[in-house]
Amino acid sequence: MSSKFKLAGIEMKYFIPIFLVIIICTALGKLPAGMLGALPLMIVIGVIFDFIGNKTPIIKDYLGGGPIVIVFLSAFLVYYNLIPEKALNIMVNFTSKESFLDFYIAALIVGSILGMNRNLLIKAALGYLPVILGGVVVSLLLTGVVGLITGYGFLKAIFFIAIPIMGGGMGAGAIPLAQIFSESFKQTPTELLAIMVPAVALGNALAIVCGGLLDKLGKKYPSFSGNGKLLKSQEEIVEKNEENKKIEYEELGIGLVIATTFFAFGSLLSKFIPVHSYALMIISVAICKLLGVIEPYYESCCSKWFNFVVKNFTIPLLVGVGVAYTSIEQVISSFSLIYFILVWQFESFIMPFIIILSIPLSTTGAFYALYGAGLSIDAMVSVGFVMLAGIVVNNAIVLIDFINLRREAGDSKNKAIITSGRTRLRPILMTTLTTVLGMLPLMFSNGEGSEMYKGMSFVVVFGLSTATLLTLVVIPVFYYLIDDFTSMIKKVKLKKSK
User: Fold this and answer.
1) ∠ CA 63-317-271 to the nearest 5 degrees?
2) The 3-state secondary structure of 257-325, one letter per residue
3) In Å, what is the CA distance from 99 to each residue of 146, 175, 328, 367?
4) Phi, psi at residue 74, to the nearest 5°?
5) Nearest-angstrom CA–CA distance, 133 and 129
6) In terms of DSSP H, where are the helices of 56-97?
7) Quick one: which of 426, 421, 432 has its CA closest to 387?
8) Of the candidates 27, 48, 42, the residue with the CA atom closest to the CA atom of residue 91
9) 7 φ, ψ to 5°?
10) Contact 455, 378 (CB under 8 A)
11) What separation in angstroms does the CA of 402 have from each of 399, 417, 418, 443?
């Protein structure tokens, strides 16, 4: 029985009839309203997408697998109007208006916090908390600084990119955080998820790659690794709780009641404290855990309820997030057209990242120029930024392309970089000087209508001047570092294949 192919734990001889009944009801407009119709439709769609994501190369290894595919493919079904309007409204209403998302998050927060081993946490806290908190603070600050330099914004970079990535991926990170941040930043959860989902996907990919490298390092040098343990004495602490793992149906009901009560308590507190109810719920549960207010039996009930909900309701929830909260138009707009053109041109996903680095180098000079001149961002300034991006990217392409040509001709990496810098210096400077000199009359003009073009000229002149100087230094350095990193990845894969 265990060797038979299953979806949602159901053999195909049963799953196919279930799938057909749900799809026919959906197509004919006979899908029941509310949970009765939404859950089966979301489950049959979700388990198929989950299977695709977990079997697709690259996606399953580097981009998060099933969860990411469920969210995006569900959103694409909405984008291309492949879901009948009545069925779509049923799923959207069930996820948002009928509080399915709140129900899931209540189980997630309460069960995950109360399910932690208190003795283990207390013993490990003194050693781990300073390291963990220090790492988190440094990561947040670095992300914020990059956001500040690129013009995206210090706080936006921290709250919309760094925290969702570190918060636990889609289910435990982006989804609840979009709800929490929506009130503070005056944006809808849909708008926030459009920013967070690509960030989480890329963060997953980088984390998986780094995790694989660290795993290799731990196996080569066992003294660096704890093999998944917080403490050497962890087995003794965990063994005491093994007897509590057997699940009774009554315990699931107890966990449900406690989780939903904590959610209600958070909502009650939000009436008196101007903080999101999710945040207040988290604080309330954490205080109860630290003070030992709740007996271990009831904590165990909440943990078992949390595991039950995560096991059975995560897939339909992700479908709900895809149809109700993920806008494909906004997700697409989060990616740069320049990036995809460069991917096609270089037939690589790595080289474009190096080239795109030239854009923030240019915007730094442009923003300082606008600030110093007391100019605001308007339509013509935006046109200037578009022109600036195109020119500086072209300079980076000239530089990187020649490096690649020299390496193909047999030069070493160091020699190719030095030769490229010397050979391409003149055309890059000529492009910069002709553009800057052409913009100077607009920048210093005081004639009628000159104000319209003044901001654009400041952006191009100062942005391009800054980018040219920095590009000739920064781009070759990043090329060298990233090429070293990709070479190391290839060596690891080669050893693994052998």
Assistant:
1) 115
2) HHHHHHHHHHHHHHCCCCCCHHHHHHHHHHHHHHHCCCCHHHHHHHHHHHHHHHHHHHHHHHHHHHHHC
3) 36, 13, 23, 44
4) -65, -40
5) 6
6) 59-62, 66-79, 85-92
7) 432
8) 42
9) -125, 135
10) yes
11) 5, 9, 11, 34
What is the three-class DSSP state of 487? helix
Angle in degrees, CA 47, 51, 53, rounded to 5: 115
Half-sphere exposure (CA, 13 Å, Cβ side) for 232?
1
Q: Name the residue among 326, 385, 322 with its Cα closest to residue 359.
A: 385
Write out the chain's pLDDT in tens, 498 residues.
456 888 888 999 999 999 999 999 999 999 999 999 999 999 999 999 999 988 887 677 655 678 878 888 898 898 888 899 999 999 999 988 888 988 998 998 898 888 877 666 666 556 666 766 677 777 778 777 777 776 667 777 777 777 777 665 554 456 666 766 776 677 776 677 666 766 665 665 555 456 555 666 666 666 666 665 555 555 544 444 544 567 788 999 999 999 999 999 988 988 888 666 777 888 888 888 878 889 989 999 999 999 999 899 999 998 998 888 776 765 555 555 544 444 444 445 555 566 666 666 667 777 777 777 777 776 677 777 777 776 777 777 778 778 888 888 888 888 888 888 888 788 788 877 887 777 777 777 676 666 666 777 888 888 888 877 777 777 787 777 777 766 766 666 566 565
* Half-sphere exposure of residue 433: CA atoms within 13 angstroms, side-chain side: 6
Q: What does the DSSP assignment read for 387-445? A: HHHHHHHHHHHHHHHHHHHHHHTT--HHHHHHHHHHHHHHHHHHHHHHHHHHHHHHHH-
Structural tokens at position 485: 């990193």
Quickly tell me which residue has 């799923």 as its tokens: 91
**C-alpha to C-alpha distances, 64 to 71, 109, 164, 234, 242, nearest whole angstrom:** 11, 21, 14, 29, 30
The secondary element (H helix, E strand) that includes residue 334 is helix 328-334
Please give the torsion angle defined by the CA atoms of residues 261, 262, 263 and 266, in that order, rounded to the nearest 10 degrees: 120
How far apart CA 190 and CA 175 sit, in angstroms, is: 10
Q: What six digits make up the tokens of 188?
A: 């809808």
